[in-house]
Amino acid sequence: MKDIVNFFFETGMLKHAKRSGWWLINVKDPENIAEHSFRTAVIGYFLAKLENVDADKVVKMCLFHDLHESRVNDLHKVGQRYIDFKKGERKASKDQMRNLGKPGKEIYSLNEEFQKKESKEANVAKDADYVECAVQAKEYIEIGHKDAQNWIDNCKKCIKTESGKKLLSLIDKTSSNNWWRNLKKIER
């Protein structure tokens, strides 16, 4: 049980580790990995329902897909050109899960399936990861980081599911502030 408790504290590191890709376009305080993983899991749930696959499995993949970054941090795609980051991610993930018993084996197995895109659920989870990046990019565009459009454009090239493609098209056309505009109560 002590290893599990230590793991809980380790996952807290994801609240402090920032998503590094956004620094390339001068986002000074980008979202952290925990925030990204949470919204990815929410998106994964809806994508799984839309694609009629196992939502519980997709949500788990999305929730756990970046756990290794508590050890290796997040490295943007420019940095990944120069080192084998995938190898480091897999080693960190294996080490993290080693002493966590059956749950650790399940998480490691789900992460391997996610990384290899070995199932419909893995492809849906990966699409959820891309869709979350597009949502975040849209939010950054709207506060002045116009180069974040590059993330949306790149996500369009990677999305595999029909539902993911439709969501991405809507994200690109929708203001991130639409959700609250009709909720404001104005007294007359």
Helix and strand topology:
Blueprint: H1 2-11, H2 33-51, H3 55-64, H4 69-72, H5 77-80, H6 85-97, H7 101-116, H8 120-141, H9 149-158, H10 162-173, H11 178-181
Helix pairs in contact: 2-3, 2-8, 3-7, 3-8, 6-7, 7-8, 8-9, 8-10
> Quick one: how many beta strands?
0
Number of domain modules: 1
State the major sheet: none
Q: End-to-end span in angstroms?
A: 59 Å
CATH uppermost class:
Mainly Alpha
Give the rounded overall mean pLDDT. 94
Rg, Å, rounded: 17 Å
Task: Please explain how this structure is put together.
The protein has a single domain (2-177), classed as Orthogonal Bundle (Hypothetical protein af1432). 66% of the residues lie in helices and 0% in strands. It contains eleven helices and no strands.
Which terms would index this structure?
single chain, 188 residues, mainly alpha, Hypothetical protein af1432, 11 helices
Task: Provide a quick synopsis of the model.
This protein is mostly helical and 188 residues long.
